[in-house]
Fold this sequence. Notes:
Order of helices and strands: HHHHHHEE
Number of domains: 1
Largest sheet: 2 strands, antiparallel
Radius of gyration: 17 Å
Bound molecules: 2-acetamido-2-deoxy-beta-D-glucopyranose
Number of helices: 6
Oligomer: single chain
Distance between the termini: 40 Å
Amino acid sequence: QNDQRHLVLAHLFDKPCFLGLLAVQADSLSDFHANTHIPIVVGGQMRYEVTGDPLYKEIATFFMDVVNSSHTYATGGTSVSEFWFDPKRLAETLTTENEESCTTYNMLKVSRHLFRWTKEIAYADYYERALINGVLSIQRGRDPGVMIYMLPQGPGRSKAVSYHGWGT
Ligand SMILES: *[C@@H]1O[C@H](CO)[C@@H](O)[C@H](O)[C@H]1NC(C)=O
């Protein structure tokens, strides 16, 4: 406990090409693989909680704002074919391979921490929308335990005929 070597070790897992751009408040998410990078932000949130370093609170706040304002569908979910696309160009991404459920799961963590820190209701609203539209909706109604990996957002698309389809 309070051993600086643990902090040094933790920093070895930083990803400057991602966290650095968020730190200077650039929307650089395009072409990043969404669900390997959201956990890096969650890790940063834990670092803020443990060390109190305000940079990681700022990074998470900015990240949440960018994802929500520029990479999120009406349902509250994000990502296309596991990646982020150009900011505010979501109409071009509508297909069967939207809103990977794992990204919703991790964005719930990001928004939950922000809500705990700030008590701002917008984060709870985000959480509720993502939970109802992106977690409950991936369960197959008549088939408990059967779920879908991606949530199709394209017009006329159906969960039943998506690429990944239903699975366990
Ligand atoms: C997300 O964006 C919507 C629409 O602009 C806004 O109403 C809401 O407050 C935002 N939520 C967060 C957590 O930034």
